[in-house]
Amino acid sequence: MSAIATKLRSVAGLPLVALVLVSGVLGVQLAAGGGSFTPLRPASPCEVRDVTSVSSGIDGVAERVVLLGLDRTACRLGTTREALVLQLAQTAQHTDAQVAALRDGLLGAVNLLAADRTLPPASDLVDDAVGQSDLNGFLKIAIGALPPTVIDHALTTSAVLRGTIDGLDLRRVLANLNNPDDLTQQIRGAVTKAVEQALLDRLRALL
Amino acid sequence: MRRSLTVPLLALVAGFVLADSAIVTLALPDILASFDGTVAQVAWVLIAFNVVLAVAVVPVARLLLGRDAARWCAAGIAVFAASSLMCAAAGSLGILIAARCVQALGGAFVLVGTLELLVGATDERRGVARWVTAGVIGTATGPVLGGLLTDAFSWQSIFIVQVPIAVVAVPAALAGRASPREPTVDRHRPAVGPNVALALLSAALTAALFLLVLLLVDGWHRSPSTAAITVSVVPLTAFLARPLARRVPATAGMETATGCFLIAGGLVALAVPPSASLWWTIPPQALVGLGLGLTVDRLMLDAMRDRLPRALHGAWAIGARHLGIVLGLAILTPVFTADLHDAQVPAEHAITRLVLDAKIPAQDKVTIARGLGDELRHEHGQVPDLHPAFSRLPPSAAQLPATAQLKSDLDSQLERAASVAFRTSFLVGAGLALAALVSLLWPRRMGDG
For site-directed labelling of B227, which of A158, A201, B187, B388 has its Cα 20 to 30 A away? Predict the structure, then answer.
């Protein structure tokens, strides 16, 4: 009996030790997430996600609109937000379909934020936009003197943002992605113009 | 020269020749930076040595049959030393690769000669055992030594350090005498089983020694010396393998088969690290090291046992090992290069997601995104360093905790992408080790039948 046990040990002892060692190492590694140490995968763009921004004023609103707009555009084009961003950033020529989808996506994002009531009051944007605009000093003082409640009564943020998006030359925006200063100027210019236009429209309506 | 000095010197020089097959692994990025060349061209600094040694060692062994092994060995050491100097002084990649070829040719004479001289200086059993052990130690410690020297001095120091050892070994070789009983004609055919297993295992070990250092240095951006210290686990556990195995009684064949299984298991474990922490590479490397310690020397001895002429069968074993290394490089390099290329898109998507969702001002996101775009455009098939993308930020933004977090998260994504890119290659390596195991079991099963 002991001879059989000795024979068995000599045949199976070392392989068993090796099997235990390999299983132990692999088991611990897999339990610690060994199989899932992979790059972060893009989230589904068709699922609504909570979008926040650390910036305030126009920059903060613009960032939230852009992030949500990219999701909606990617969902519509059947791609991911990340693939869309890389595609838009790495291509010099953008198709009409891409530009149209982006505009629709951004407008959809504004509607979504408006429906969620997470857009700041228009007076916040107006102060910011007028401060950065090239309006003459008299007009700046006049608009600055208006109480926020009057501005908020006269304008809605969503209308300003829609006007901004409609007025933006998206092809130029996409071409300027590598030039952040021009890009910022372009977006702020469009916001200011949309604010001006909305205020003038309101003024005309009152008169 | 005294025998007590001759034997260690001859073993040392034989170990150095075999260490040279992988010694430049950790120096390849520095060599690439020194010369105008591509990654594929620089890889030939490694491949050329192994190809020439694999092809030349058997003809050299035939040439030396019946000749004065001491003189030929001394000449081989001199050629090896001179070509090492040539490697260190090489002004172009072409000259470096040519010098490596000459080094391997000299190395072939050294290996065949030292085997004969070590047997002559001791006896058949001890001489062969010392020659085999020197080779195993050399192979296992080559990448470690190369990494430490490259980080401490330069890649050239890898070759310079070999010269004085070779110079001292020349008189040791000239003082030696080969065993007079060696026949001059082939008496036995090469041992197919052990040599095939050696070739397959060497190909698998290429994954452990070559790919792991590439993953650590290029994929996880660790310094060559950190990588060298990390991969020293393999030689350390290889030394411990035999004493540990003695505690569990097993037949020689069972030890070798178990060693193949341990190498395969270690490579599978290297394919699935839970993070880029170096600690996670230690247990898998320990498995590989234990496997190495149980297999290579035993297979070398099996390939040479009771076969004459001894030098010729030793040369067949060396040829098989280096052919295996070349086979491993030939199979694994295109696999991981293609996987590294395929990992680019998921990595870019992960990076884009992190930048878009980062809790930093939009203006900073655009600045970082532009920098990242530039770094990714200039990556040339390597894992890029994304840190320069952050240098464009104003100092106030660069010091924000959210920016530091983004930088760390991006590094993590690259580490993840690199780990995934190396996964298939490690698994192919494991497959090669299992193929070696099957090759060992196959004749036995046939015999049983």
Answer: B388
